[in-house]
């Protein structure tokens, strides 16, 4: 048990260092950001594994603070022009959603509300809502947006977001 907590502390330090580097490099070098995004994804995946295995980790406020930082990383890079960075950001967000689901419904609701404030024309909205829905939180999405189906049907006509619309619709129908 103490060994797991120690490993979590090491992961926290690694991710903190990566976040500082990402802020420094910003969008100047996509190669560096890609490398950091892969490292963030690996760390957050291991962190989520420890989080799921041990109830002792769930009460730690530093983990929730870190989840918020990883969520911010994901929001920033979900729209990257580099597909692999977008992919890593999406997967990191999915891991954060898993941890929120186990410990903080309030954080999930905040994440959904943040996504709902975006325009239906923004791809990020669909990516975030899909990540939340994949983890079995369709009911929270529907309570935040009762007319979701109508909005999806309206926006599926737009060729720039039609695949994201249909993916979200499919996830909502299969997970609810």
Walk me through what this model shows.
Helices cover 81% and strands 0% of the residues. The chain has helices at residues 2-25, 30-53, 55-58, 61-77, 83-103, 105-116, 123-134, 138-144, 148-155, 162-175. The chain has two domains: 1-103, no CATH class; 105-176, no CATH class. With 176 residues, the chain is mainly alpha-helical. The longest helix is centred in the first third of the chain and has 24 residues, at 2-25. Helix 1 runs parallel beside helix 4 and helix 2 (30-53) runs parallel beside helix 5. The protein is built from ten helices and no strands.
Task: Quickly list its features.
single chain; 176 residues; mainly alpha; 2 domains
Give the topology.
Blueprint: H1 2-25, H2 30-53, H3 55-58, H4 61-77, H5 83-103, H6 105-116, H7 123-134, H8 138-144, H9 148-155, H10 162-175
- Structural class, from secondary structure content? mainly alpha
Please describe the biggest sheet, giving its number of strands, its sense, and whether it closes into a barrel. none
Helix content: over 70%
Mean pLDDT score? 80
The SSE string, one letter per element, is: HHHHHHHHHH
Query: How many separate structural domains?
Result: 2
Q: Count the E strands.
A: 0
Regions with little confidence, pLDDT below 50 for 5+ residues: none
User: What sort of overall outline do the alpha carbons produce when their principal axes are compared?
Assistant: globular
Strand content: under 5%
Number of H- or I-type helical stretches: 10
- Structural Rg: 17 Å
First CA to last CA: what distance? 35 Å
